[in-house]
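Session log. Operator J.P. requested a structure for one protein chain; no other inputs attached. Running the standard single-chain path with token output.
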Amino acid sequence: MTPVRLARRALARSLFAILLLSTAAAAQAPFTIEDVLAVANASIADVSPDGRHVLVTSATLRDRIGTDNYRYGDPTYVPPSVAEVLLLDTRTGERTPLLEGRRQVRGGRFSPDGSRVALLVREGDDFRLALYDVATGSLYATETPAGRLLSETSPLEWTRDGASVLVALRTEAWRREARARFEAEVKGPIVVRSSEDPFLSWEEVRRLGGRQIPALYDVAANGFRELGDEATLAGFAVTADGETLRLERDITAKTNYEEIFGREIALDVRPVDGGEARTLFASTRGMRFLWSEDGERWVYGKEGSVFAGDLSGGEPRKIAGPERAARDSAAAPPDSAARAARRKERFTPVRLSPDGGTVIATNSEGFWFVDTRTGERTKFLDAPMGGGEDEEEEEEEDDQRPRWSVLAWSRDGGSLYLEEASRTAWERAIHRLDRRTLRRTELVRGAEQYGSFRLSDDGSTAVFTKSAPNRPAEVWTADAELRGTRRLLDPNPWLAARALGEARLVSYLDVDGERLHGVLYLPPGWREGTPLPTVFLVYEEFFDARFNATVALLNADGYAVMQPSVRLERGFPGEAWLKGVTAAANKLIDLGVADPDKLGVHGTSYGGYATNLLVTQTDRFKAAINISGKVDMISFYTDSPRLGTRNIHAPERSQDRIGATLWEQPQKYVAHSAVMFADRIDTPLLLLTGQQDHNVPERTTSEMFYALRRLGKRVEWVSYVDGGHGMPTTTEALVVDYHQRILGWYDRFLKGVEPAKADGG
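Structure written below.
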């Protein structure tokens, strides 16, 4: 065949391939608001000990419609959230529904021999313990004892012999009391609050949710056995042999202003069959416990040290950490070399081996195996980790190095699974470490994100979720070496018929020269170099290209969406969004993605607050949307009573990063209140709030509406009367309205398209 004929044939093949791709693209429908309601998220509840079966739930946004936000904070209220419950066979791929239709369930645990599944199933207002027989496919719902209720937060732990299931019961009297206490707060008719009360009134209401009765359900006897009286507990467990009960008693004496929902916990143990309780720790403040699989042994970390012990009691053994003299030293601030040396001595426990004999701990040098009896340690991975007060400095120094995390530890203790995640690219790897030889083998590497990694007890089977950039997660299985991977469940096969855009990781420098990353979502069919109206979706840091249905909807309407990262500085958080978001905008303009005259910005909650602050500092954005975000740090400071001290803690110690009380630094509270600078806003602003938002009450956001209206600025405030925090989920119609208003606002001010008038009634 002549070269000319070969060239013609190659050209014909290319044209045919292009035609096929074009036809396929044309066959895909655009992503719609209806699709927002229909996207399903799959969750792995448990894996059978032999790896043969996986318990999975799959739920959509539509499945959690109907929330009663008026009952936010009511200990007796459980918002509706139904799901499809499936048993997947890892060998055949067969899918078996456990329940008819979509039901609300909690928990889901295989028995030690894998023959049964225990789960809580909602019937009316109550939950019942149900046992599913894997071999016969039959489901048996137990009868809760008269005068008792099953707590929706029951632990559902099997004893080692599979004879019993640990649950939490409540009394009918508790429900009446808790409901009446809630009603008294919201309906009165008279509510009195005093500084002499040990707790804030709403904290008293919330604490009622901790009252419960530990109980064992005996499978053979088909009955419940209560293991003690009703008490206020932070948690409880039974050892695998079923002989010892561990109780985390809530002994909090008053409202804690230094920790959100801070509690004082005492740790007790006593025989399951009765007998006197013994206190292991009068207070566990500052401790984070890790327990062995049998519940007999423990480790905890505190102030950079790691301690070990068991239920027999005795003085905890310090197995890693600095000497007390070094910890208590009040000497002059150390230099950089001294700080580095100190970080090496500070350890954080990460994972305890199933038998409790070894704990994985990290310090500034890497990951270590530490013997819980002798304290002997062996480093198995060079991967610096944050270590306390110098964590921010370390993060800056090592922000280009991969992050490592422990995914699973085989039950026999011989294999450790580790995930390596790049901080500069969408690249992840899973490694298997041989505990004896410390030899590490890379099993997989790629751009996919892995989640809910589970290893069967016999070590034969791994189950996990996996998602490609800008695609929902699917459920997969593989052998112990992650070979022979097979997809068990695609919860959204219909998405193949939808046109979804591409996601890219974008690197850029902020105005301080700091290297940041953001996630760019491009509309389907975008041609390189064609500037687009671009929406910046702001919060704090973004890196992973997780699927976001609202972003997909904006893409379908022709918008590029950028999730830019910012570097927040304690004491001066307001500057971060100006520095980071505008730098990201410059980068996208330089790349030919963003049209500089068609930039929009929005965010939810802290992102809504960021949006409002941002538009007081720049007029580059032609449209902005604040969704459930505060605008006044002063009025917000002591607001949101149903969240206790959360909104006081946020500026003083956590997310808002002001780092002082209102009375210590009043000027910073003013400087970070967008409403104080409303006269500088020239960007048309849409405010979306829920009247029943008890996280960021809409009254603080409404201040911006009245301020801008007084100043003659362009502003619109949409209040969802039954709505809560963020997107309203009381009805499907409200979800549709919410998305239509977001699209309409951007269409109006970025595209010049006047939308059809939405029904405001």
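Operator note: The two ends are 73 Å apart (CA to CA).
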